[in-house]
Amino acid sequence: MGELELQRLQKQTRRHFLMDCVSKMGGLALFPLLNACQIGSGKEGVQGLNLSERDLNPLASLAPPFIPKVKSVIYLHMAGAPSQLELFDYKPELAKYDNQPCPESMLEGRKFAFIRGVPNLLGPVAKFSQHGQSGAWVSDFLPHFSKVVDEVAFLKAVHTDQFNHGPAQLFMHTGSPRLGRPSLGSWVTYGLGTENQNLPGFVVLTSGGKTPDAGKSVWGSGFLPSVYQGVQCRSKGDPVLYLQDPEGISRDLKKKIIATINEINKEEFEKVGDPEILARINQYEMAYRMQIDVPEIMNINDEPEYIHELYGTRPGEEAFANNCLLARKLVEKGVRFVQLYDWGWDSHGTEKDTALDLGFRNKCREIDRPMSALLLDLKQRGLLEDTLVIWGGEFGRTPMQENREGKTMGFKGRDHHVEAFTMWMAGGGIKKGTSFGRTDDLGFSGIEGRVSVHDIHATILQLLGFDHEKFTYDFQGRPFRLTDVEGEIIKEILA
Amino acid sequence: MWKEKSSKKFWPEFMDFIFSLFGRFHPVLVHLPIGFLILGSILVFYAKKESKEFLPAIRISFFWGTIAALFSVVSGFLLYQREGYSFDTVSKHLILGVLTTLFSFGFYLYMKKRVDFIDSKVKGMSIGLLLLLMLTGHFGGELTHGSDYFTEVLPEKFQEFLGISNASEVAMIRLDEEHWGEAIFYQDVIRPILSQNCNSCHNEKNRKGELVLSSPEWIAKGGKNGLVLDPIELINSTLLARMLLPLDDKEHMPPKDKRQPSKQEVALIHKWIEAGASFEVSLAKAGVEEEMINMYFPEEREFFYPETELTQLEENVLLPFRKSGLLIEPISQESPLIKISAINFPKDQKLNLKDFQGIASNIVYLDISGTDLDDGVWNDLMVFENLTVLKINRVDIEGHGMEALHQLKNLKRLYLNDSDLQLSNLLTLADHPTLEGIFFYATPASKAITSDEIARFLARLEYGGYELPVLSSDTVVY
């Protein structure tokens, strides 16, 4: 190593010194210039504290650049990726080739998470029929949902480029398969704030026993101020951990404590000017306000009996049904973004729980009634006019049966598939009862109306009143977008 | 290919470019005679009565003014010859320029004769010369800056008064979603494309390369390099071929630094030429597919909220409402229309709609759900002339007097969920002309309403009560 360094130094000539001088003197000259810019922009400047309303209350509601179609979003994410071929993408041709080897032309140049060699095709496990006025194909695994298909717009040829759960979930929720980007909900609350000042603007509810594989980054705020990250609430036990006052601490005392802490934090902010301190102050204040409103809203016991029946809730348990009911309550109370994660959709067919005709059907039953009820309940309250509901997984599943390590699985299962899968949207601004995009006869690739994850993000932002190309946040010297340099609005599903 | 190489002799070629270059100096040169002639005229007026001390200076001014004017005229003539201007365009400027030169020369000769003092006759002549100069300059300026250079900045009303409508001759392509097939390919699509991309140089005034693309006759005529629509091999016509050349190619049209047509526009020209470059053929007959032209369909611009001429409210007007706990924001960043919500309004406070009188016209979205209001609310709402969405959920309101909502001519959505709304009161809104949706889930009215009554409403009624049947599959565990 030392030798290498010597060699390098010997190569350094007088010219290097001159070059260095030029570039570094330039840097010296640039420094005060840049500094001046910063003060001019009024963003910070510890001396001249110039705080906007937004600094003091980062979650204050803001108007979007354009008149929005919806003001809230409920995103139902099926973590693990449900099989589109057993739910919405009906492929009678695939049934004909059931258990036949997959044509090699389809496999050429493609990678799968577990499939090796030449797998067999697997026909649809479910029975399909057409429903509603729109004649949408829905399988018998979703008998309740088939009654509400006229409310939704299907995207039949969504594609992604990540075939592992973590990166694919990150991609679906932050627009990038790598860590560090803000989630969709964070972007939305950053751009719009939230209406109800006693509740978080971005609430996350999970069910299915586990949180998504990608971890909490899927509702993280990335480079946005941390106040915009999702607040995870639980439907069982304390809705928000550590929110209740400890015994012997009265609310008045709590108020005094928070006031004092905030006072100290403000002094600290004036000294160092770190905006994260403001976020901290605000989070203390919000937590104090939330102590009253959150337990009230997270309590579903006061809902009338027929609402419980509609959703099929299981009070006291962690259930997707409870979360759907909560999502409706939260949106009704003016929460901007409600993100639901339901874990357990990774139907590889390695065991009973991941078999398409067994465990998968149980998962379908668990979401069928609640998500249908959610649409109906939002509709009857007129909330569907102001709310966008999104349903989907992080990718789709292969038309081939999984053959992990070249062996045939004991149960019917499918591998991860990035080429084509189904998502649906419903609510304000969405063309009801439509289906956009088509896959080939085997359901392998989209052949019409393919849409990317970026396209979906662009469309969501459009419905909320943003131009996804102009909605940016400056970080590391460049403006960042949720859709990066891509994304086209899916006009075909907009009313 | 398109340019014939001229002879290899040096002199003609050299002179050729010298003339062109000299011609291009015209805009510089013209300022010289202006300076000299104005100086001379000033001196004419500067001279004291019946004195002749300025005479030599005046002579010099007009002498050099004449020389400079001569250079300007010659350079101007070269410019007109070489840059493809038509005589009609430059005629006024050219004639007046020559006149100015002649006049100033005459003036000089006259002043040379005069040895006595300057009288009013001389002054009159110099005023005449100045007028001539100004007119020449004005018409010259019109050529470089456009004839609307001055009028453009005038207020629109004043322009209308002067009778100079600013309607740009560049027509945009507008096609009807249903009858686009009947549109004439040239007239409705190709002409606007040429107009936007080519006509700034190839118009009847400018005629770059002696080519004009503004009408079928001119297009058929071609330019100095021949026809642009090849009668034998239509698809190889230069009109299209030069657009298809790489941008860096010298022959590429429009020139590299000019506005470039979009891919779709080039594709449409391609299609038009492919279909025979007829000036009469319709889009459908030419075999144009809808995808090629659907970007020219009108965007549906049906506004949900009323269009008004209101201005954005001042922050200090809104501040007291904000302080009281109301959420107030414009419906979009720049909009003067606002949305008010009582979502954060303290439960123990009384909301008084009369307070909104001053800003009521700006309010298009009002959510006063969960507040302590009674049926007096209907009368207070009368001043909200632009109100479009009204949400009064979770209130003790039966709806007495709600027929007053007929006076709100923009009301589209009405929410009365979880209220004490009585059916008889709701029925008064059955024929409300603008209401699109009435939401009254979980009210006495929602339980009492019959299908006959529902049919009487112009608006869509939403009163809920949805159920999902219990299915045997609901309980099967696999």
Name some characteristics of this structure:
heterodimer; A: 495 residues; alpha/beta; Alkaline Phosphatase, subunit A; 2 domains; nine-stranded mixed sheet; 13 helices; 34% helix; B: mainly alpha; Leucine-rich repeat, LRR (right-handed beta-alpha superhelix); elongated
Detail the topology: elements first, then pairings.
The complex is a heterodimer of chains A (495) and B (478).
Chain A: H1 2-11, H2 14-41, H3 53-56, E1 72-79, H4 92-96, H5 104-107, E2 128-131, E3 136-139, E4 152-159, H6 165-174, H7 184-192, E5 202-207, E6 231-233, H8 251-272, H9 275-297, H10 305-311, H11 320-332, E7 337-343, H12 359-380, E8 387-392, E9 396-401, E10 414-417, E11 421-427, E12 434-436, E13 438-439, E14 446-448, E15 451-452, H13 453-463, E16 472-475, E17 478-481
Parallel strand pairs in A: 1-7, 1-8, 4-12, 4-15, 5-6, 5-7
Antiparallel strand pairs in A: 2-3, 4-11, 8-11, 9-10, 13-14, 16-17
Chain B: H1 10-24, H2 26-29, H3 31-46, H4 55-82, H5 87-113, H6 120-145, H7 156-162, H8 185-197, H9 216-221, H10 238-244, H11 263-274, H12 290-293, H13 315-323, E1 327-330, E2 338-341, E3 363-367, H14 377-380, E4 389-391, E5 413-415, H15 423-427, E6 437-439, H16 444-448, H17 451-455, E7 460-462
Parallel strand pairs in B: 2-3, 3-4, 4-5, 5-6, 6-7
Antiparallel strand pairs in B: 1-2
Helix pairs in contact in B: 1-4, 3-4, 3-6, 4-5, 5-6, 8-11
